[in-house]
Please model this.
Amino acid sequence: MRIKIKISRKPVDYAKAISYLEKKVQSVCSNKSDELLWILSHPDTFTAGVSSKNNEILDNKIKVIKTNRGGKITWHGPGQKIFYFVINLSKRKKDIRKFINIIEKIVIDTLKEYKIKSFADKENIGIWVKKNGKIEKVAAIGIKIKKWIAYHGCSININNDLSRYDKIIPCGIKNRGITNLYKIKKQNFKNFEKILVKNFLKNLKP
Model:
């Protein structure tokens, strides 16, 4: 099972990225192309998953793109790294919960290499950190399954403008905040993509 690695250096329009993913799902489903890992960023964009609610939008002036991924409302933009994937679960274990655990572990393992301790939460999907007694989200996960092809992805906050989240209730969670890696630990997050690719391939081994 070969996985194509695609890394985009310039921000990619959200709608164009999802269109590419949808086409890739069809070709992977029909065994016409390799699976995919795509690392990129988006311009300033708010997106809403299938379980989002209108009252989670706090600023009605913002434009929110509705998507078919799981989850609620979130933000994408500069200073954030996103990894999208198209993975055929029928060639692995047909276990959605286990796949989510794998995606969570990929992020946890990657942050560990920067000496940042993070953890998953069964009640609230995503990756969290605890600092000064506060639990805050540093990575959000949204997944769609179609004919046992898992796609969409995970966004990791590196050094983004956290005030953008003030316009929404991120992921529908009111009692926890949002943070980024630079706020947790001021350091150079060089080679982030390389380390992420390594941990993705390692954790997805059959």
Summary: The helical segments are 14-29, 96-112, 181-184, 192-203. The first strand starts at residue 3 and ends at 7. The longest helix spans residues 96-112. The two ends are 9 Å apart (CA to CA).
